[in-house]
Fold this protein.
Amino acid sequence: MSILLTSMRAEFIDWEGELSFLEEKYGSDDFELVLIYGRRRVGKTELIKEFIEDRSSIYCLASLEDKEKQLENVTSKIHKHFGGIKPDIQRWTDLFRYFSEKAEEKIVR
């Protein structure tokens, strides 16, 4: 895998295999969990952003903030995606329950 950064926009080089793999998993009728990991600065975030660009998606990047702030941030992004009345979420289990109730369509999560 390699990535070339030019003019603030990433151009993918040798990422066709990874994008094809993600397309295959996205097209599956089965529940699919894909973990993306690797060394720092190899383009994992850009790969994800490229894949979700034209799809219904919710993108959340983990941070070093306290868990309450992270829960608030993720809740806000999910609420923004679905709209409606903002739920009162106090625990991660509440957030996952809310998300599973709202996610009737295929969403890149």
Confidence is low (pLDDT under 50) at residues 1-8. Residues 67 and 92 are 9 Å apart (CA to CA). The chain has two domains: 1-55, 59-109. The radius of gyration is 16 Å.
